[in-house]
Amino acid sequence: MKIEARDLGWRNIVRGVSCEIRPGETFGLIGPNGSGKSTLLKLLAGLMPRAAGEVRLDDVPLGQLTRRQVAQRIAMVEQFADTGEALSVRDAVELGRTPWLSPLSPFGPEDTRIVDEALAAVDMTGMTKRPWSTLSGGERQRIHIARALAQQPRALILDEPTNHLDIHHQLALLGLVAALPVTVVMALHDLNQAMMCDRLGVMSEGRMVACGAPSDVLTPDTLGRIFRVRAMPMTDPEDGSTLFRFLPMEEPR
Ligand SMILES: Nc1ncnc2c1ncn2[C@@H]1O[C@H](COP(=O)(O)OP(=O)(O)OP(=O)(O)O)[C@@H](O)[C@H]1O
């Protein structure tokens, strides 16, 4: 699904952002703390009222869709997502099926299959009966992702999805979302992980100041200006890809 932002704004936190996220691409959003990434993601998902500008999903203005229609198209995992304490792991993932259920099509065997698949995709099949409240931070994050997968959206919007995950599950998650046949927009802080995205948007003080292929966007100059670090590119001898080592900016004496 194509997602277009046209002159999108909210208060002075997101200011005049226009961008087009192409069908099926993995689009990374990077930027310093407080630069507006989470707010922009929520605007794209239609979760912020009184926004300026417009979001279009496959050329349809988001405002013309019902909440249910939006939920059939977009699943979002927020940065500090929580869920009802009394739920089991399985209940939490089954919530993802809600936009597809109705009195005429109640939860059935196909929904069970989709939920099983989502739990397997995040390596949580063995924990389905556990109460949500007993999960670790990383396990909760994986269940949020499973809930979003169970929603079977055409776009996944993920706010720092690798937060709390150990390195194995970080790489597994990035591999999983990259392989999904859906559009993915995700905020990331790890700039080496951001290099794996198809394209990146760079946020600074509410504006998208750069957008393009990671190798075009993540230059030592941009990283110095926007993130105030010294970025030293290095080449991975295994596959020739570029990695960065980061050092503090040398302050003028
Ligand atoms: N509801 C709100 N009311 C007032 N200010 C807000 C609100 N939501 C966010 N902000 C402010 O807007 C700015 C951008 O916040 P946002 O969460 O979008 O940034 P971010 O780039 O995702 O940051 P981080 O990397 O720290 O998660 C911050 O200064 C934040 O304090």
From TrEMBL:
The lineage of its organism: Bacteria, Pseudomonadati, Pseudomonadota, Alphaproteobacteria, Rhodobacterales. Residues 3-230 form the ABC transporter domain. Transmembrane segments: none annotated. Keywords: ATP-binding, Nucleotide-binding, Transport. CDD domains: ABC_Iron-Siderophores_B12_Hemin. Belongs to the ABC transporter superfamily. It comes from Pararhodobacter marinus. GO terms for molecular function: ATP binding; ATP hydrolysis activity. This is Histidinol phosphatase. It holds the Pfam family ABC_tran. The keyword Glycoprotein does not apply. SUPFAM superfamilies: P-loop containing nucleoside triphosphate hydrolases.
